[in-house]
């Protein structure tokens, strides 16, 4: 199976052929994957070099000319390093763009802290108006990139990961899907966390919701699912900073007594190098770690 990043590069090249309004803006990362597209559309495939602040500022300027930029690099270089430009040159200027990251939280774990971005979605949550897609499979990534490219002049973040579920789910941007129903509580699995959540809750009487789009947060689906359970218990399982979606869940359930357990990467930095699976396990996001914490919460 190709990776989400592989699929994105292929799809973005095709979209350039289909829509003359689109442009791809790069900062060296993945530039080799756009060689054919750059030859076909030299004025709409732009590599600014290792200048991530310029990457975002250029995208803002391109958007103000009427084009729709698709901006791509690793998450830490796309959201964290140029955050001031995201805030000023996109949000403040009212310039729409599609930011497509690779690397997720720990895909490039051996690259060290500079290449890790577990806080990217939480950081974007400090700004208004962002749609955030977190696909769990390359097929979902393709569908969501296509949707983002055609989404008018909106600000859209598509978070790609090498971690993927075995099978794709239907994509309905802004809607959470019910994968399994139960009475003892609700577990919301975001993007590539679905397979681990299904394994962790196997044999448990819980509802499993799936989200490939987390902003906007589907409050109606959460309210309905929690309302069908015996206890108003909700577990959030996100592949980035734990608690990122907790305020949105609290708002969704504000009028009823409830409990929320927020699982994700811990704030504590793992000060060692290792593989992505090792980081996932260390944060308790593998099936065994999830099972222990979900069971402990629901039976408390």
Which helices and strands, and how do they pair?
Blueprint: H1 4-18, E1 22-26, H2 35-40, E2 45-47, H3 52-64, E3 68-74, H4 75-80, H5 83-92, E4 97-102, H6 120-124, E5 130-133, H7 138-149, E6 155-159, E7 177-180, E8 186-190, H8 194-200, E9 207-211, E10 213-215, H9 219-227, E11 233-241, H10 246-252, E12 259-265, H11 276-282, H12 287-298
Parallel strand pairs: 1-2, 1-3, 3-4, 4-6, 5-6, 8-9, 8-11, 11-12
Antiparallel strand pairs: 5-10, 7-9
Helix pairs in contact: 1-7, 3-5, 8-12, 9-10
Instruction: Give the low-confidence spans.
Output: none
Shape estimate = globular
Q: Round the mean pLDDT to the nearest integer and report it.
A: 96
How many individual helices?
A: 12
Beta strand count: 12
Helix/strand-derived category reads: alpha/beta
Helix content class: 25-40%
Strand content: 15-25%
**Terminal-residue CA separation:** 40 Å
Main sheet makeup: 7 strands, mixed
- What is the rounded Rg? 19 Å
> What order do the SSEs take from the amino end to the carboxyl end, as H and E?
HEHEHEHHEHEHEEEHEEHEHEHH
Give the strand order, joined by hyphens, for the main sheet: 2-1-3-4-6-5-10
């Amino acid at each position: 199976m190709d990776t989400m990043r592989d699929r994105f590069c292929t799809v973005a090249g095709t979209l350039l052929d289909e829509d003359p309004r689109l442009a791809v803006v790069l900062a060296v990362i993945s530039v080799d994957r756009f060689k054919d597209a750059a030859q076909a559309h030299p004025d709409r495939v732009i590599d600014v070099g290792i200048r991530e602040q310029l990457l975002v500022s250029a995208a803002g300027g391109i958007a103000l000319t009427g084009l729709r930029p698709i901006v791509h690099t690793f998450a830490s270089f796309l959201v964290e390093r140029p955050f001031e430009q995201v805030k000023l040159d996109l949000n403040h200027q009212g310039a729409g763009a599609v930011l497509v990251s690779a690397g997720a939280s720990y895909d490039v774990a051996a690259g060290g802290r500079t290449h890790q971005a577990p806080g990217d979605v939480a950081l974007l949550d400090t700004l208004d108006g962002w749609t955030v897609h977190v696909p769990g499979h390359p097929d979902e990534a393709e569908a969501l990139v296509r949707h983002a490219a055609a989404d008018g002049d909106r600000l859209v973040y598509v978070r790609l990961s090498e971690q993927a579920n075995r099978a794709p789910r239907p994509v309905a941007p802004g809607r959470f899907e019910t994968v399994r129903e139960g009475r003892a509580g609700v577990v919301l699995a975001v993007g590539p966390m679905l397979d681990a959540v299904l394994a962790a809750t196997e044999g448990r009487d819980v509802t499993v919701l799936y989200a490939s789009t987390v902003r906007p947060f589907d409050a109606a689906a959460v309210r309905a699912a929690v309302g069908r359970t015996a206890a108003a218990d909700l577990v959030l399982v996100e592949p980035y900073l734990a608690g990122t979606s907790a305020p949105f869940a609290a708002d969704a359930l504000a009028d009823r007594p409830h409990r929320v357990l927020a699982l994700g990467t811990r704030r504590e930095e793992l000060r060692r190098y290792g593989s992505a699976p090792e980081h996932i396990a260390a944060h308790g996001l593998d099936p065994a770690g999830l099972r222990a914490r979900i069971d402990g919460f629901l039976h408390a």
